[in-house]
């Protein structure tokens, strides 16, 4: 099969890129190629990335842009980028799209690129109605699929759910059991942005550290606007809130092995996102679960595919007026309730095994084969 994958204009693909979409599709592209398929990746490439030794996947680099944070400007840049894709994309059986305008442009002017699969990796904001000419709307979680149907009920028969995968060989529990008897670390991995609930996490950590003097907080992720963060002003605000607390801001990590080491050295993972209209899946949550970490997440619907409360992790009500206190109680319980951390850890790893990358890659290939034919109604 000839597979074209069009990434978005704002984040570079690996090795420099750290965005979930870019990481996942780069990984899947390699697996598809190793299975005998002809794969072309089109997307933004960082200038420092050297791909001279990569033979498995054809990479067609585009200039791309830095996200401005202004919706209309970003949409204009995305449109220019989508038009540029037409000049670089070759014939294919299917084309996976990851930007706002690419499905529209390709459905009118790029039919030779293949049947169009819209990878819906963000909470839809009304644009699904523009995609009536595509073959598949592929949501990465049940919550996103439901919202796509709610916003565009006429396209329900085109909606499919295939989640993000996880490489269980890279993200795995440490060889030695975690030692909870000394200094312990709570880890956050993700963009440093107001919608991620980091101010709430810092407030909760301040409360938790009063009862847990050996606990530390480590925050991994980018804060620059170009990388999807909240910018320097917001970062300074967080650092001020963390003053006097054992909090370390480690910056972004793009190397997968270094990232897996972050999870291996932690004792608990917390992802307190408040992005009601932004969070779609939570790849870092799945990475933490695969690494055998007890996890604490907010009550967003997108996490329901991963975590049943008190089974694979703890969920807290981020909408509560006392959300920081509730979160603090969850964090404290991880380290004080006998047997809780171990039980959550084992259950989390078992749930993560459902998302093993080989299994999910096969699901994507089956979806591609379906897209090559007429899409049949799904009951």
Give a written overview of the molecule.
There is one protein chain. The chain has 379 residues and is an alpha/beta fold. The chain has two domains: 2-165 and 356-372, Glycogen Phosphorylase B (Rossmann fold, 3-Layer(aba) Sandwich); 184-354, Glycogen Phosphorylase B (Rossmann fold, 3-Layer(aba) Sandwich), CATH 3.40.50. It is built from eleven helices and 13 strands. The strands form two sheets. It has a seven-stranded parallel sheet with strand order 3-2-1-4-5-6-7, sandwiched between helices. A six-stranded parallel sheet has the order 10-9-8-11-12-13, sandwiched between helices. The longest helix has 18 residues, at 71-88. The two termini are 27 Å apart.
Main sheet overview: 7 strands, parallel
Q: Which band does the percent of strand residues land in?
A: 15-25%
Which residue ranges are poorly predicted, with pLDDT under 50 across at least 5 consecutive positions?
A: none
CATH superfamily of the largest domain: Glycogen Phosphorylase B
Rounded to an integer in angstroms, the radius of gyration calculated over CA atoms is 21 Å
The CATH class designation of the largest domain is: Alpha Beta
